[in-house]
Design brief:
This protein has six helices and nine strands, in the order βαβββαβββαβααβα. It has two domains: 111 residues, 3-Layer(aba) Sandwich (Rossmann fold), CATH 3.40.50.300; 49 residues, Guanylate Kinase phosphate binding domain (2-Layer Sandwich). The chain is α/β, with parallel strands linked by helices and 185 residues long. The strands form two sheets. It has a five-stranded parallel beta sheet with strand order 2-7-1-8-9, covered by helices on one side. The chain has a four-stranded mixed beta sheet with strand order 4-3-6-5. α1 crosses α6.
Length: 185
């Protein structure tokens, strides 16, 4: 199991960030699980994901220099995961990446043995969460909901599906069980 990559993807509003934060908080400090730090073309915020912030020029320079093992663009931002964050990573049996559904075929090409986790929620839940964030117009929210409805897992790619509509701890326990993670604090 050494060096297993877990690629987590799903629509905006499904609660991927919350689910991964819950899982990270539940794991024992010495659990052989790492959460890959992403490089993103947005400013860091106190309440958001811990990431490396770069401007577009810096991101393009890093990508051209071959710094990223995985990189994609989504929702007007660029995301990259540096090689050092990916398997094999010393001391980690499992490396979890918060990825993109659109980039999934390329990630699978690069890491054919990865485990895919598709986090989703009902249309009503997605719409409600996206509207509550207040970052987008109703039309933009509907476009995101429609993309969630239109998504199909790429052919030949198996995934673990986690429905995150109820209590976060319920979805988190499902994820931990599906990934066979037992090193809880």
């Amino acid at each position: 199991m050494t060096g297993r990559l877990v690629y987590v993807a799903g629509p905006s509003g499904a609660g991927k960030d919350s689910l991964l934060a819950w899982l990270k908080a539940q794991l024992a400090p010495d659990a052989p699980v790492a959460f890959a730090r992403r490089t993103i073309t947005r400013a860091a915020t106190a309440d958001g994901e811990q990431h490396d912030s770069v401007d577009m020029r810096g991101f393009l320079h890093l990508r051209e220099a071959g710094a990223f093992g995985l990189d994609w663009a989504a929702n007007g931002l660029c995301y990259g995961v540096r090689h050092a964050e990916l398997p094999p990573r010393r001391g980690s049996e499992v490396v979890i990446v918060n990825g993109s559904r659109a980039y999934l075929p390329e990630a699978a090409r690069r890491y054919p043995d990865m485990t895919v986790v598709h986090v989703t929620a009902s249309v009503q839940t997605l719409r409600q969460r996206l509207m509550a964030r207040g970052r987008e117009s109703a039309e933009m929210v509907e476009a995101r909901v429609q993309r969630a409805l239109d998504f199909r897992m790429p052919p030949g790619l198996a995934s673990i599906e986690i429905h995150n509509d109820r209590a976060l701890a319920e979805a988190g326990a499902q994820l931990a069980h599906a990934l066979q993670l037992t090193a809880f604090a």
